[in-house]
Amino acid sequence: METSYHENYTKQLQRLLNAVIKSHRKYLKASDQIESQEFKDQFRRYTNERSQIIAELKDAIHKLGGQTQDTADAEAAVNHSDHAKTDGKKDQSVLEALRASEQETLDIYDEVLQGSILEEFDLKTLIMSQRLIINEAYTELDKRYFELFKLSQPY
User: Fold this and answer.
1) Which of 44, 64, 81, 135 has its CA 20 to 30 A from that of 53?
2) Where does residue 40 rank: exposed (0-12), middle (13-18), buried (19+ CB within 10 A)?
3) What is the spatial distance between Cα 150 and Cα 50, in angstroms, rounded to a whole number?
């Protein structure tokens, strides 16, 4: 790989890293907001998955000679996130915010996967496996959100 590719790959990996850090922080925050112990346990699992992905992305960036940055953008995104409503639909509101956040993360993964990073097999494999983990979480959140949504609807 040429140096310019290394720089581009590093930038793309840093972009993914920022998105996953944001996701990690949102799950931590959601764990404090959610009422259901079952959801708290689920979010703890997702937080652990994000921690692993963060470590993998940092390792990949370092292998390319780059430096990782825990940018203010990720922190600002969490601080400006939607706050859960305080009515009886609090869990549903938290899930809705997390679904939106995970969709944003998946969109970033999709954008990165459309670029030249696909030419590097090891990075492509890493990113695709991470995307699968995030997509599984999104799918579960989506399912759980709509289960709560149905329960909250009058018949």
Assistant:
1) 81
2) middle
3) 29
Q: Give dist(CA 150, CA 93) in Å, integer.
A: 14
The upper half-sphere exposure of residue 54, i.e. CA atoms within 13 Å in the direction of its Cβ, equals 18
Indicate yes or no: pTM above 0.90.
Answer: no
Closest C-alpha to 27, from 2, 5, 54, 1? 54
Six-digit token pair at 22?
A: 């944001």
- Token pair of 150 as six digits: 């149905």
Task: State the 10-residue block means of pLDDT for the chain, 155 residues long.
Answer: 73 96 96 90 96 97 88 47 48 91 97 90 96 97 86 65
Place of tokens 């709560």: 148
